[in-house]
UniProtKB/TrEMBL annotation:
The lineage of its organism: Bacteria, Pseudomonadati, Pseudomonadota, Gammaproteobacteria, Alteromonadales. It comes from Pseudoalteromonas neustonica. InterPro entries: DSBA-like_thioredoxin_dom (IPR001853), Thioredoxin-like_sf (IPR036249). It comes from the Bacteria. This is DsbA family oxidoreductase. SUPFAM superfamilies: Thioredoxin-like. Pfam families: DSBA. Residues 6-207 form the DSBA-like thioredoxin domain.
Amino acid sequence: MKKLKIDIVSDVMCPWCIIGYKNLETALAQLSDEFSAEISWKPFELNPDMPIEGQDLNEHLQQKYGLSEEQGDENRKRILEMGEKAGFTFNFDGKRIMINSFDLHRLLTWAATEGKQTELKLALFKAHFTDLIFLNEQDNLLDVVQSVGLDRARAKEILDSGEYFQEVRSEQNALQQMGISSVPTFIINDQYALTGGQPNDAFVQAFKQIAEQEA
């Protein structure tokens, strides 16, 4: 059994991050008799300057990427299809917002120390993309934290203080120095990188190639 160390640089606000992760999960399930993986999540902010109240998502995409309404519809259709194929449900029916995710990264850094980082990350993706929960509202965020069995009062303490601020900033700076500027980026065994919402076949192929190179 070969062990893989997989660091996923990602933002909860990024739909391709959850699509890529679900495809990774499928690939690992296919190769479960050959590989085991230790997964950790690294912080990336798509919108570090976003104010706390967030912004309507369609308005944000039009401003940031210059997408017309038609292009926005095309984009959503593609994400919906890719999500369905990967086994994740995107909901485009209600009001959706883009927020600054720094506080989510602080909680995820803490969750790693409790052995629940992936559980929290997946719960945050579902809350944001499927349930359309506004994660910039503290009670909503604490509900998600509690739903994966983490201590609500402790999470509130972290949010109300500057805890894990430095850890997140240091990780972000280190990743920037490595030249990582887009998400998702999957760093395998500290030396190989795959970027984007890759299909599961791409992960299968990459893991087999890595195993051959390291043999």
